[in-house]
Amino acid sequence: MFAHIQIGVKDLARMCAFYDLVLAHFELRRAVELSHVGPAGVYWQRPGERWPQFVIGAPVNGQAPSCGNGSQVSFLAASRSVVDAAWATALAHGGADQGAPGPRPRYAPDFYAAYCLDPEGHKLCFVHTIVATPVHEPFTPDSWTPAS
What we know:
The chain is 17% helix and 27% strand. It has helices spanning 12-23, 80-92; strands spanning 4-8, 29-30, 42-45, 53-57, 73-76, 96-103, 112-117, 123-128. The chain is globular.
């Protein structure tokens, strides 16, 4: 679905330490040492897989990073216990609670999630779901009509 998701951060070392711990629950490992950070920033990926990646770094335009209101990065968990553990890890290492682990049936009957802010205020979701079929009808180009 995507190649990578990237967010801008202020304190690269602190955020690397946070994401090293949290993303380990999703089998994502950091692929860049802080001593070798290039313009692309620091990224995490699954061992042996190039994509997808989660990336953090200073904004390329040189301006201060900011968090988007309404923006959220969601990580798909292998189980409910992974959701619980990732959320607890995030809160224990500087994250802020935005919704404890639990069912969210308004999204799907099996949608189990937890929400937090990372130490710099980016909203994260950790979610486990097993429904293999879409909840909504998928988009098809033939069904689209432009808004007037």
